[in-house]
Amino acid sequence: MVARKGSAVMMVFVDIDAEMDADFNAWYDQEHIGDLLSMPGFLNAGRYQALKGGPRYLACYELESAEALQTPEYLKFRNEPTEWTRKMSLSVNGRSYVRNICTQIYPQEIDPNGTGRTMAPALQVGRMDVPADIEDKYNEYYDTVRTPANLEVPGCIAVRRYHVVEGSPRYTTIYEFEHEKVPETAVWNQRRGEDRMHEYIGGTYGHAPGSPGVYRRILPARSF
Predict the structure, then answer these.
(1) Domains by residue range for the chain, with CATH
(2) Could you report the per-residue pLDDT of 154-201, keeping only the tens digit for each?
(3) What pTM was estimated for this model as a whole?
(4) Biggest CA pair distance of the chain
């Protein structure tokens, strides 16, 4: 089985002005994704567009580990961009630009039965700041109560949680869905109504702007 999931992800969020939208999508689809997938340690990638929250565009790269971003090949790629990449420069032309490198903390071990899973048709991504005094309870509740409950919701394929080791905020949760309507279902909303995270941890945590975002996959193209 070809490994398509590792212990880390790179997530790039950005808003693009309307006049650059066509060039942006062409560059990503025709050059950038392919270039990155040729790098050692890059296992898979997908592009998504926000239906709820934001920023509008998300590119998610599955990495063997965060060390994939330290290889000579990747560093050369970063230091010697193509002419098209220089022209597009998301840090210059993008708005609300976020580039996060994340290492997996849940599940603690990589599930060998899940490493062949392709990029999900839809994602919900939460990016959270958690105060230090409630971190332990936050992690315990997420891993032992919230996640097991959400994994029972029809259409929820997987849940993975990450520490952000480059970028911010510190925590990221990725829900993989069969379709983007999962968080609108009665079962999902029932689970939300039953959730007692804030009571258990005795405090509150904050979301980054646009979080949680619900994203529909646009590359690879979907048939539905």
Answers:
(1) 8-219 (3.30.70.100)
(2) 999 999 999 999 999 999 999 999 999 999 999 999 999 999 999 999
(3) 0.96
(4) 52
